[in-house]
Automatic annotation (TrEMBL):
<keyword id="KW-0413">Isomerase</keyword>
<feature type="domain" description="PPIase FKBP-type">
    <location>
        <begin position="239"/>
        <end position="322"/>
    </location>
</feature>
<dbReference type="Pfam" id="PF00254">
    <property type="entry name" value="FKBP_C"/>
</dbReference>
<keyword id="KW-0697">Rotamase</keyword>
<feature type="region of interest" description="Disordered">
    <location>
        <begin position="159"/>
        <end position="198"/>
    </location>
</feature>
<feature type="signal peptide">
    <location>
        <begin position="1"/>
        <end position="23"/>
    </location>
</feature>
<dbReference type="InterPro" id="IPR001179">
    <property type="entry name" value="PPIase_FKBP_dom"/>
</dbReference>
<comment type="similarity">
    <text>Belongs to the FKBP-type PPIase family.</text>
</comment>
<protein>
    <recommendedName>
        <fullName>peptidylprolyl isomerase</fullName>
        <ecNumber>5.2.1.8</ecNumber>
    </recommendedName>
</protein>
<dbReference type="InterPro" id="IPR046357">
    <property type="entry name" value="PPIase_dom_sf"/>
</dbReference>
<keyword id="KW-0732">Signal</keyword>
Length: 339
């Protein structure tokens, strides 16, 4: 029996990947091409029922790629709804009412047909879709819930079970993003050093400090920090939640552009590199000023606000350093749920 089940899944997967060229497709009233593989259930599905399914969505055409794949992840929940007469729809949901527990389905959306039906325009297509492409959907119905409340409870159970995977995936994505950012930063900084621009930007800050008779220490990263009070509490470090009150100014004009306070998890969120580096020189309760050469501030794009490689400085006060986010309250198990 187990071998038979594995074989049936393999056949279904192969059919999905080839779009079942030799299969007998049906055509929905709105032109959707689909085929359902009977799972053996005799029950019928009605409007309002909730389907719990695994699904995939894959682009086939100019560039083959997966958009969605829930296998090994959180199942997909969707409510069966009656399509109002005359409402334009070109979506697998149109035929969800025909699915029963254990059924599998392949449905195909042709991009050219969607354009022809006026549901989208070629100019509005996302960059990963082109004319001539098709999106192949596959569904495997795991359960059919007659009552929404039971479906919600099962959704919550599945969500809690899937949370560790989601967190791991988010961490991996963030690590990949940080690695790409770091590689790009190193390449840019190497080019600045080669051209002499990096030394020029550092000299700009040094000249400012000298003109104001300010004594500041340069960190190995390149930030200049004037410590008025180092602080006596917990050390600012990567992984810590740091609440900082600040006033931001430009070196060129000595003018304030922002004043506020916020909390950041140091080293794990996209942030101004020089500001982050400067904060590490303090403990909770510390006060001082962080002077940042342009390449350690907003860089060549200036964040759309500043000039390219504009030097900045921040008067800072470290209000709190903790292991947990002080802005997030702890919730009990019965404080609410989502669907």
């Amino acid at each position: 029996m187990k071998r038979l089940k594995i074989l049936s899944i393999a056949v279904f997967a192969a059919c999905a990947f080839t779009a079942c060229k030799n299969a007998d497709y049906k055509t929905s009233p709105n032109g959707l091409k689909y085929i359902i593989f009977d799972g053996g259930s005799k029950d019928s599905t009605k409007d309002g029922y909730v389907l719990k399914m695994h699904m995939t969505a894959r682009i086939s055409g100019s560039k083959d790629s997966f958009l969605v794949n829930t296998y090994g992840k959180m199942p997909y929940f969707d409510q069966v709804q009656q399509i109002p007469a005359g409402q334009p729809i070109y979506d697998p949901r149109e035929v969800f009412k025909e699915l029963k527990k254990g059924d599998s389905m392949v449905a195909i959306i042709y991009i050219d047909s969607a354009i022809k039906k006026g549901l989208t325009h070629e100019a509005q297509l996302p960059p990963f879709l082109k004319k001539g492409d098709k999106i192949i959907y596959t569904y495997k119905v795991l359960e059919v819930f007659k009552e929404d409340s039971i479906a919600r409870a099962d959704y919550q159970k599945e969500m809690e079970k899937d949370l560790p995977r989601q967190k791991k995936e988010q961490e991996e994505m963030m690590q990949k993003f940080r690695k790409e950012q770091e590689e790009a930063r190193k390449a840019e900084e190497a080019e600045l050093e080669k051209s002499g621009e990096k030394a020029k930007q550092i000299q700009e800050v040094q000249n400012y400090l000298a003109s104001k008779k300010i004594t500041a220490t340069q960190t190995p990263v390149g930030t200049f920090v004037k410590i008025d009070n180092p602080g006596s509490g917990a050390q600012v470090a990567d992984g810590k939640f740091v609440t900082v009150k600040y006033t931001g100014k430009t070196v060129a004009k000595d003018s304030t552009f922002d004043a506020n306070q916020f909390t950041v998890k140091l080293g794990e969120q996209p942030f101004i590199r020089g500001f982050e580096d400067g904060l590490r020189q303090f403990k909770q309760g510390g006060k001082g000023t962080i002077y940042i050469p342009g390449y350690l501030a907003y860089g060549k794009d200036g964040n759309g606000v500043f000039k390219p490689y504009e030097a900045l400085y921040f008067d800072v006060e470290i209000l709190n350093v903790s292991d947990s986010d002080p802005n997030v309250q702890e919730h009990g198990p019965n404080d609410g749920h989502g669907h």
